[in-house]
Specification:
- There is one protein chain.
- This protein is mainly β.
- The protein is 0% helix and 62% strand.
- The chain contains no helices and 8 strands.
- It has an 8-stranded antiparallel barrel with strand order 1-2-3-4-5-6-7-8.
- A hairpin with a 4-residue loop joins strand 3 and strand 4.
Length: 104
Amino acid sequence: FPASMTGVWSGNLQQSDGKVWPMQVSIPGGVAVATVSYPSLGCAGTWTATSADTAAATASEHITTGACTERGAVELLLAEDGTLQVGYFPEGAAYTGSAVLARS
């Protein structure tokens, strides 16, 4: 992940089916693996970067704890206002998701 995305980010994932889940992501600078959690669902796992530049990245999500959709694709964009915009595309599911995360 790009150094510009380093930090702990939190916000709500808004699914296209109307469900909303709090989420938190911890991105260490300059490495390919971040940790993600959905506390109210009891789910957690990793995001592994598949491509990145200074303000954008794509990653694959792998949930290793809990009963959430195990795998998916994630698109990240660091917005000009300092928020992290997230697009989420779960494997084999009928919904997608999006979030605007703030760095804590």
